[in-house]
Design brief:
This protein is an alpha/beta fold. The protein has ten helices and eleven strands. Helix 3 (96-106) links the parallel strand 5 and strand 6.
Length: 262
């Protein structure tokens, strides 16, 4: 979570600060101070929210439990909140993303929801395979995803936090085109300067591998990848509409993060 200006928990008053469990590993740009905190520690959160004008919230839990306590702390001081949700929140009212959005809507804060599709950064789950073997073993190579670069989310968030005119908006944020997982692997190979091969896994074999790789994966995720083979993930122009620049393609993300795969 990041908070607006004059956060009393920051050593330099008047600059934005970011609340994180591990400030040493935050890797924030110049001008942003990282302070230690946890959304599960509401009393500690209140110290950092005092004086904030706006809050950027990334809800990291897979349940909406605790949302109301966090919002009660925020609403005492801030007037604006920008929340990173998910594109599926609009399609699945029973999801925790939608539940968190409903809590925010009831809070009385001026809110904006950012609903990205898949994060390009999630392809880091292939990094060990690429480094070790140069082969990505995964299901649904023809699944077409409109993965988004985190910098595009950030640039939209800055505008929603600092400009008027975004209250009540639900922005669906995507990359500029839907790219198959096979093509994503090829782009990563181009970025690191060596070929990377795709090996298609059956759904059954994928369950076993993903249990080792990710600690398991919901059947819903496999269903979603399967659906993207026939119906590509949605593509919007929202990033360009709001920032004046087109969303960064997946190949750009791969070049920006090539070291993660070498």
């Amino acid at each position: 979570m990041s908070v607006g200006r004059s956060c009393p928990g920051c050593s330099s008053r008047g600059q934005p600060c970011a609340l994180t469990r591990n400030p040493d590993a935050a890797g924030l740009p110049n001008g942003i101070e990282a302070v230690r905190g946890d959304l599960a520690d509401v009393p500690g959160l209140e110290e950092h929210v005092k004086g904030a004008e706006a809050v950027f919230l990334v809800w990291l839990f897979f349940t909406d439990e605790g949302t109301e306590g966090v919002l009660d702390a925020i609403v005492q001081y801030a007037r604006r909140i920008v929340n990173v949700s998910a594109e599926v929140a609009g399609e699945r009212p029973d999801s925790f993303w939608a539940a968190v959005e409903r809590h925010i809507e009831r809070s009385g804060l001026e809110w904006t929801f950012l609903r990205p599709t898949g994060f390009a950064a999630n392809t880091r789950m292939w990094a060990d395979q690429i480094r070790d073997t140069g082969v990505v073993r995964f299901p649904y190579g023809e699944a077409k995803r409109s993965l988004i670069h985190e910098r595009d989310i950030a640039e939209v968030a800055v505008r929603a936090l600092t400009e008027d005119g975004h209250a009540g908006a639900r922005y669906v944020l995507t990359g500029p085109q839907a790219v198959t997982q096979l093509e994503q692997v090829h782009e990563i190979g181009e970025a690191i300067g060596r070929p990377v091969r795709w090996e298609e896994l059956s759904r059954e074999d994928a369950r076993e591998q993903l249990a080792e790789l990710l600690g398991g994966v919901p059947e819903g995720a496999l269903d979603t990848w399967a659906a993207f083979v026939e119906t590509p993930e949605i593509v919007t122009s929202t990033v360009e509409d709001l920032t004046g620049e087109p969303a960064r393609p997946f190949g750009q993300w791969a070049r920006d993060h090539a070291e993660d795969f070498r």
